[in-house]
Amino acid sequence: MAACDLYFVFLIFAAHKLTNAVKLNQPRVLLPIFNDKPVNLTLEVDERNCYKWTSSRQDLISVQPVYHVFSECAYEAVVTVRTRERRRNTAIVFAEEVQTGAMLRCDVIVDKISSLNVRTATRQLYLEEAPSTLRATSSSPSRESSSTGTSRSMTARSRPQCGSSPSRKAPTTLCPPPSRSSKPLASRAT
After folding, report:
1. What pLDDT, on a 0 to 100 scale, did the predictor assign at position 3?
2. CA nearest to 109, candidates 132, 98, 96, 93
3. 117 lies in the same domain as 104
4. Is 159 inside a domain boundary?
């Protein structure tokens, strides 16, 4: 009976360790290939220990550790697409914890992007307000997709008349914040 209880306690301990396992912020990512612009992605380990960062394919991507405050330890790294060959390739970024040797990995797929879909729950956007949270999903010609939720500032290229009623197909209009007594200037039904 004591052995059974000990086994049960060990099982609970192991399950607790698995649920609290160290992770990268992106386990798998699709990055676009551009001829004229470098594409960067910051990978981050959720535990701020010392990690050694490497790539399985230095010809496709480079991995540059981000050192914080005179430290020789990096829990973040910037991944940059190096290849300009517009065909699908894969690489793996490894983050090895220096003291324990525990290995984390992120599968990086580089390919030309065939479509990009951006979604937000925000129906009204105002200039000089906090940025909106967006969900961006990109996909390659082989239907590989990558999704990320991120907070970004928005910029309007052309500005419709504020206060006008946009059509259902028109994009969300960015207008200055309303005065306290006025209603939202522009909105879009999604």
Report:
1. 63
2. 93
3. no
4. no
Write down the pLDDT at residue 184: 43
Structure letter (DSSP) for residue 59: T
pLDDT given at position 95: 95
Q: Is residue 47 part of a domain?
A: yes
Residues of the chain with pLDDT under 70: 1-20, 122-123, 125, 130-134, 142-190
Write down the pTM of the prediction: 0.59
17 in any annotated domain: no
User: Are residues 66 and 76 in contact, defined by beta-carbon separation less than 8 angstroms?
Assistant: yes
Helices (H), the chain: 2-19
Q: Do 79 and 60 belong together in one domain?
A: yes
Residue 147: both structure tokens together: 């999704």
Alpha-carbon distance values, 46 to 39, 49, 72, 121 (Å): 23, 9, 18, 27
Letter for the amino acid at 34?
F
- What is the CATH number for 49? 2.60.40.2310
